[in-house]
Amino acid sequence: MISANHSTPTLRRIAVIGSGMAGLTAAIQLSKRGHDVSVFEKSRGPGGRLSSKRVTDGAVDFGAQYFTAQDAGFRRFLDEYAGPGTYGHWPARFVFQRKDGSRETFPQDERFVGVPRMTAVSRALSAHVKLQAGTRIRNLARKDSTWDLVTVDGDRLGPFDRVILTVPPAQASDILLESGLADLAGRIERMAGSLLPCWAVALHYREPLDPGFDGLRCEHPVFFWIGNNTSKPGRPSHGQWWMLHADPDWTREHLDTPAEEVFRKLKEAFSELADIAAEPDDWLAHRWLYARSEHNDRPGSLWFADHGIGLAGDWLSGGRVEGAYLSASDLVCAMED
């Protein structure tokens, strides 16, 4: 049983909605401070944008393609709670392509990936929290000085002294509006429209390709990112899986386009860009409505002390996986002040 300690004078029951990097970070840090924390996730398992889809010979990373660890605290957090064996350095050829087709190498920052898939990190982190998956929260219901979580099926979970939302801002806004908290929803309304959508398509080629890069960030009418998933450490080497992330504007124009048509369009554009004639023998597609943040000017986190409600996520801290960790850490500090 968790008990209060010298640094936490009051034991609190805290609910965290969302089990991506921000949600898991907040849950682990608050549990370490002596609080009783429960994490609720609408999907079958944790991960958020640390997303991978299983294929016959392993898995393909559909969300974040890699992460940095420039903050020393983030690296220590990963080593302690995920374990150094769950991620590794990706020694890839990273290239940036301009509109005129010219290319230059990326800055040589160290980039990491989960091993053998991105979800290895989130799965390991989730072992340190109480996680209830397959639970979609519709709204919060005030109960004296505490909150109940109300699921889409009408079940009530709680009570909780504090609630943390780590879902994308549009989803957080919906939950707050359904909870009669229009004032809080209004505070994040502008941010709710700043997350960019992305069609993601994975292509498998029986024979390896070598277009001169393993990761390509490009200024292109169709693509934002192209990556050789098979070049990442710990991935099976039977053929090659390539991940294509469509440009946000292109994605907006094709939000309701059937997945098979999106696959054909991205495959043809990839063949032209990479100058390859080979045809893929397998493919997968996924549409992200909230893929990444459009702006880097963010407050870090949001803490509404009068309501006992906080928000954290990469969209509040410059985007990226490391930003999600920093946002959650910022929120935990604000809650403890």
Give a summary of the structure in a few sentences:
With 337 residues, the chain is of the alpha/beta class. The chain has helices at 21-32, 72-82, 119-126, 169-178, 182-187, 189-192, 248-253, 259-274, 320-336, and strands at residues 13-17, 36-40, 52-55, 58-61, 87-89, 94-97, 103-105, 112-114, 130-132, 137-143, 146-151, 156-160, 162-165, 195-205, 215-218, 223-228, 240-246, 282-293, 302-304, 309-311.
What's the Cα radius of gyration? 21 Å
- Our estimate of the beta-strand percent is 25-35%
> Main beta sheet: strand number and arrangement?
7 strands, mixed
What is the straight-line distance between the termini? 25 Å
Based on secondary structure, the structural category is alpha/beta
Describe this structure in words.
The chain has 337 residues and is α/β, with parallel strands linked by helices. The chain has nine helices and 20 strands. The chain has helices at 21-32, 72-82, 119-126, 169-178, 182-187, 189-192, 248-253, 259-274, 320-336, and strands at residues 13-17, 36-40, 52-55, 58-61, 87-89, 94-97, 103-105, 112-114, 130-132, 137-143, 146-151, 156-160, 162-165, 195-205, 215-218, 223-228, 240-246, 282-293, 302-304, 309-311. Strand 10 (137-143) and strand 11 (146-151) form a beta hairpin. Helix 1 packs parallel to helix 9 (320-336). Mean pLDDT is 93; it is low at 1-8.
Task: Write the topology of this structure.
Elements (H helix, E strand, L loop, with lengths): L12 E5 L3 H12 L3 E5 L11 E4 L2 E4 L10 H11 L4 E3 L4 E4 L5 E3 L6 E3 L4 H8 L3 E3 L4 E7 L2 E6 L4 E5 L1 E4 L3 H10 L3 H6 L1 H4 L2 E11 L9 E4 L4 E6 L11 E7 L1 H6 L5 H16 L7 E12 L8 E3 L4 E3 L8 H17 L1
Parallel strand pairs: 1-2, 1-13, 2-9, 6-15, 13-20
Antiparallel strand pairs: 3-4, 5-8, 6-7, 10-11, 11-12, 14-17, 14-18, 15-16, 16-17, 19-20
Helix pairs in contact: 1-9
